[in-house]
Amino acid sequence: MIESMGLGGGASSYYYIPEASGKSSWCGCRMQQVSLNNHNNNNNLNLSLANSQQAFTAALDLMPGGVNSPVRAFKSVGGQPIFIHSAKGSRMWDIDANQYIDYVGSWGPAIIGHSHPKVLAALAETMQKGTSFGAPCLLENTLAQMVIAAVPSIEMVRFVNSGTEACMGALRLARAFTGKPKIIKFEGCYHGHADSLLVKAGSGVATLGLPDSPGVPKAATSDTLTAPYNHISAVENLFHHHKGDIAAVILEPVVGNSGFILPKPDFLAAIRKITEENDSLLIFDEVMTGFRLAYGGAQEYFGIVPDLTTLGKIIGGGLPVGAYGGRRNIMEMVAPAGAVYQAGTLSGSPLAMAAGIETMKIIREPGSYEYLDKITGELVNGIVEAGKRAGHPMCGGHINGMFGFFFTEGPVNNFADAKKSDAHKFARFYWGMLEEGVYFAPSQFEAGFTSLAHTPDDIQFTIAAAHKVLSNI
Ligand SMILES: *Cc1c(COP(=O)(O)O)cnc(C)c1O
């Protein structure tokens, strides 16, 4: 049933602690006890981050902003990012040997916990046979069968290397299938960094305060229409004004890229109906929600079946993967079955397939999502209650292993509502929690994630830390 790999798990509670403390050592997991100080940068924390700071200084000279993906740079909470040495179960250790309970989970993939022994064993075994062939291998069939069996809308699937690629491919296919040029996306939804989708794209862009990216030609986004999330009549208006021109509506069925935002009860059904009536396709971007909200994703959870679905994150079990899939008659337009070109040197990588297969075998065990629901509900309710008790306007929510909270009264139904959250307060909360040994996403506009490895004790520890921090900010 539930594999628990958190604290107190007997032999499995012995994890490697990095060299930063002076010498390598194996030791039992104990939360680092650090006292709270109110800071919104890490220059004078009680947490020692000297090695991370040194590494980041070096990185700034080597990579733009010192990172390979913008939100990692901690810009929206101030200070500098923490360099991770290793991760196991619900925990991560930085290169200064501080330990954290991790609620980022590599931004979603780590739903069974980090470094699960079965995933590591599958990777080790697969690796012995070679890391990449550029030719078909059996693991691709296995993962494809699992994805098709799990996700209601998917009859055929194409594996790619990232969620960005999956969304690019799905859009090209939707335009080819319908013969129409335009797409509708929602403000605050992120579908990767392809040119045509980099319009009002949520967290990464919002965090940096860039309304759009320089370098994206106007022509690339001129067929991208946007509407506020949860706003059905705005979508109806777009269909009215661009009659016969809309190839697809793409959306996050639960938003995670401008904080955690739920669809209103009728929203997804209404979009399904409008797209059907107009011979347009509905694309669920389930890169985040796939296998996260339910084994069959948001479409299973809400009972709404899209035409195309994009996946990523969890299906790679922590290795780089994306996928898009849908009805057979649509997917058979993809090359070489059809004329819509899309390719990838490393697509279907045996290592990524192996990690995805093991991850999915574990998460599909009975009881997994019930467990995630229980601990995540306790977590969010505990944090919001702690905030309210300390006099902070707060709201929050969760579905199974995905959650979020805002420093505003709410309700938060779209990106404009999310932006009312007090980002300065979030930053103080963020650093306070980090000092307590809790690692959240370093931005108010990101969802959080739990895993099967998070124990009830992890949750209680986090809530206690939140009480302490929230009453001091
Ligand atoms: C993460 C994410 C993407 C992009 O995936 P990458 O693998 O980072 O390219 C696309 N859509 C959604 C909803 C995501 O959460």
Give the tags.
single chain; globular; PyrdxlP-dep_Trfase_small; porphyrin biosynthesis; Aspartate Aminotransferase, domain 2; 473 residues; 2 domains; binds pyridoxal-5'-phosphate; alpha/beta; 15 helices; four-stranded mixed beta sheet; Aspartate Aminotransferase, domain 1; glutamate-1-semialdehyde 2,1-aminomutase activity; disordered N terminus; isomerase; Aminotrans_3
Total number of beta strands? 16
* Full CATH superfamily name of the largest domain: Type I PLP-dependent aspartate aminotransferase-like (Major domain)
The name of the CATH topology of the largest domain is: Aspartate Aminotransferase, domain 2
CATH architecture of the largest domain: 3-Layer(aba) Sandwich
Low-pLDDT ranges: 1-43, 207-211
- Strands of the widest sheet, in order across it, are 6-12-11-10-9-7-8
EC number: 5.4.3.8
Protein name: glutamate-1-semialdehyde 2,1-aminomutase
Pfam families: Aminotran_3 (PF00202)
Catalytic activity: (S)-4-amino-5-oxopentanoate = 5-aminolevulinate
Notes on the protein architecture:
By secondary structure, the chain is α/β, with parallel strands linked by helices. The chain has 2 domains: 15-115 and 367-470, Aspartate Aminotransferase, domain 1 (Alpha-Beta Complex), CATH 3.90.1150.10; 117-363, Aspartate Aminotransferase, domain 2. It contains 15 helices and 16 strands. It has helices spanning 50-62, 117-128, 138-150, 163-178, 203-208, 218-221, 232-241, 267-277, 297-302, 328-331, 350-363, 368-389, 415-418, 423-436, 456-470; strands at residues 14-17, 25-28, 84-88, 91-94, 99-102, 156-160, 182-186, 224-227, 246-251, 281-285, 308-312, 322-326, 395-399, 402-406, 438-439, 448-449. The protein has a 7-stranded mixed beta sheet, sandwiched between helices. A hairpin with a 2-residue loop joins strand 3 (84-88) and strand 4 (91-94). The radius of gyration is 22 Å and the shape is globular. The model is unreliable at 1-43 and 207-211 (pLDDT under 50). The structure holds pyridoxal-5'-phosphate (PLP). Residues 162-164, 167, 190-192, 252, 256-257, 285, 287-288, 312, 322 line the site of pyridoxal-5'-phosphate. This is glutamate-1-semialdehyde 2,1-aminomutase. Keywords: Isomerase, Porphyrin biosynthesis, Pyridoxal phosphate. Belongs to the class-III pyridoxal-phosphate-dependent aminotransferase family. HemL subfamily. InterPro entries: 4pyrrol_synth_GluAld_NH2Trfase (IPR004639), Aminotrans_3 (IPR005814), Aminotrans_3_PPA_site (IPR049704), PyrdxlP-dep_Trfase (IPR015424), PyrdxlP-dep_Trfase_major (IPR015421), PyrdxlP-dep_Trfase_small (IPR015422). Its EC number is 5.4.3.8.
